[in-house]
What we know:
- This protein is of the alpha+beta class.
- It has helices spanning 7-13, 37-48, 60-70, and strands at residues 28-32, 52-56.
Amino acid sequence: MASPASPASSKAAHRWTVANMPDLTGRAAIVTGANSGIGFYTARALARSGADVTLAVRDKTKGERARELMGPT
Length: 73
């Protein structure tokens, strides 16, 4: 098994980009930690690809702010 720092795992990481995201219209996604970091960018990418995204956050105010920052989908 490749470790996170091994060439095999870093090579695999370069094969996928947001541009490769399929059309997710009609699909649902729940993203935890969606108010910042990886969770935020994952939720935004899913929404822009057509998914109905639920933002799972601990702080409602931060979640609402994240939704505003995502902009129109």
